[in-house]
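In the previous chapter we treated chains in isolation. Here, by contrast, the input contains two separate entities that must be folded as one system, with a combined length of 349 residues.
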Amino acid sequence: MIVRIMGEGQYRVDDVVIERLNELDDALEEALADEAAFPAALSALLSAVRMEGEQLADDELVTSDVVLPSGDATVDEVRALLTDEGLIPD
Amino acid sequence: MGMWQRFTMIFKSKANKALDRAEDPRETLDYSYEKQLELLQKVRRGVADVATSRKRLELQIGQLDQQSAKLESQAKAALSQGREDLAREALTRRSALTVQLQDLHAQLAGLQDQEEKLTQASQRLQAKVESFRTKKETIKATYSAAEAQTKINEAFSGISEELGDVGLAIQRAEDKTQAMQARAGAIDELLASGALDDATGTTKDSITAELERMSSNSEVEDTLAAMKAEIGGGTASPAVEAAGAPAVEAPAPKPAQES
């Protein structure tokens, strides 16, 4: 699976770790409603991707299966990105 | 649906909109390539803008550091001459500067981070654009317009993601640089108005003026004392005490009475 961390690049992540990443993603989802918990939850997910994944070479042109916000994204920025298209009602 | 699936969907739909399509897909390749080069230029300008902001900030931090060191030495000088009030004033001004400096250092770290990320983004984009160019030439040489579609879609989806990502990064960098420039402008104005005291030393602030007045006073006293010691001998010590006395306006020893 190819994962892009925005502002950082793409990683190739083995399918076996996806379950763990999904758990971290669930935690992040919950943290969207909790500003205090958000940075740690985001950082946990991104760290797992960096640790488990292998960074793609710059010249590889591959589509990502998953796109994640950058590590310094605030909860407000992520909310704005998500609500921009009206997918999440306020 | 988990957060990342939603995030991914939204991101991709945005990224796909970034590339317009022409009737002949092979023409779209060239058009898209032009767009990619434009964005690459924009990212490079962005890197340069952030670097300019960073340098300006470093310069201001340097000025404020100098000012802070100057106030500290002024406080010491004032204290050694028994002017605690003056020392307190200098230290009060210095502590205001320290707060300002802490803030600027945090801003600087943010800008450095931004600059580094943008530089890397620029390198990544350049590599991907180059890849795209190679693919584009292969596709144009090998396939008819009708056949090319699948290959083109592959090349597009890879590059459009990068374009979308870099586009957002450059937008963030621009926002940040603009905010920084506004702040830097405000600090320049403060420096110019003398509210933070002038670090270039072209105009004298009140503490400097007072200390100079004091030191010229005590210089006079020291010279007087030295002269008296040469002439009369043994009268040097009261004169030295007078020079180090708390009050600036301490009366000089009266040579006439002592000799």
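The helical segments of chain B are 3-17, 25-80, 84-142, 145-193, 206-231, 236-243, 255-258. Confidence is low (pLDDT under 50) at residues 198-202, 235-250 of chain B. Compare these points with the single-chain example from earlier in the chapter.
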